[in-house]
Amino acid sequence: MSHSFDPASVDLPRGHYIGGAYRPAEGGLEMHRPSDGVLYAECPVAPAELVDEAVATSHAARIASGWSSQRPRERVKVLHRWADLIEAEAPTLARIEALSSTRPVEEALTGDVAITAEQIRFFAEMADKEGGDLVPTADSELGMIMTEPYGVVGAITPWNFPLSMAGWKLGPALAAGNGVVIKPSEMTPWSTLYAVELAERAGLPKGLVNVVLGDGPVTGNAITAHPGIGKVSFTGSTGAGQAIMGNIARHGVKPVTLELGGKSPQIVFADADIALAADCVTRGITANAGQVCVAGARLLVQASVAGELAEAIRAKMEALAPGETWAGGRPLSPIVSERQIGRIEAIVTRAIAEGAEALTGGERFDRPGYFYRPTLLIGVTDTSPAVTEEIFGPVLTLQTFETEEEALAMAQHPTYGLCSGVYTRDLARAMRMARGIEAGTVWINRYGRSRDHILPTGGYKSSGIGKDLGREVYRANRRQKSVLIGL
Q1: What's the fold here for domain 265-452?
Q2: Closest CA to 444 of 302, 288, 214, 280
Q3: Which fold has domain 7-260+464-486?
Q4: pTM to 2 decimals?
């Protein structure tokens, strides 16, 4: 069954969402559909004054509703009803998501929307199962570690997986008893707005979550600098994460969770299942057209099987066909914008000028929209921008190694340490690599997250601070207080 639709038929929510109502706003940033480049809307930019109102509204709603102080199980019930509504409204959410983003409607429906509902339920169940602790002290004293919400959390989400990234932020923050002011990407805000509408229909107090639209320099800076925001959670580029840390430091001190960029290696040993590796490596760089923070963009392969693996990957890449996100099926996704596809082109062109060869790809598809051919670059050097920089497109570099020690050395990146993949039938080698690679996640004989939300995600080095998913992100949305009672 196809879920294709006419993009002109989708009724988009418009304006900021504050106190349970839309605030229409005129003008703003131009929005082009990635699938055809058509200008279809404008995204308003919330000034600092509107962010002030959103933060105050969230604080007031949290206190008036007793969201933080009620029995935790009551929060669980509301969040479960929200997940139910997300599932019930899946076709609408999927169309909204597909219209403006890079997510094909079929993938949004069966993947993004379904996963978001799962995540909300997972985080909800933390509310009455994670808490404080009694700690050993002298018999004449009682020592406790209490936890409590921060108050209002500021959340800033990216454009590549708009709905599920909103779930990453909203689920744990709300389960932990906080209010939220969230800024979705100015390129893909619509599914977040509709999801918050659904949350209020499920019983979330009006005004507890407020959505302010805008860009990073204006609206994002107002959120991260705001004294009424107790904690900031951001997913996006390393450069933007650095700017957020600097802005917070200039205006005070507050905790921050940053899930940032990566340049993750996929390491294939000669004893690996080559067919499996070829499939995983290809999907690891072409899913969402490589616009994934965990994209496995650096292929490191033992020299004796490099030719066989390269040919298998080339064939898989060339079999991928592009298509509009609203056309149904599971086509190769478009690149999000003209600016981004231009950046991809510039990096690939420079690499080829410096001696690399495109075994396949290396150019746009000749069609409307922002579609780039999956690209496999061989003959790259360690200093090539194609190897060192996060491209955020379907571009894979291939380098060879001889020994395990050489592979481990090549896997380390001077800047990033988000994820990695290892393909081998040797369990001992797999564990040595898992221990030795400097990255927050190591996948072995697979590549990409599962739907086991218990596994935290987050990077080393400039790939981030703190964790999303798992118990860790729930705990990160509550602060600790030590209490010592003299008996």
Answers
A1: Aldehyde Dehydrogenase; Chain A, domain 2 (3.40.309)
A2: 280
A3: Aldehyde Dehydrogenase; Chain A, domain 1 (3.40.605)
A4: 0.96
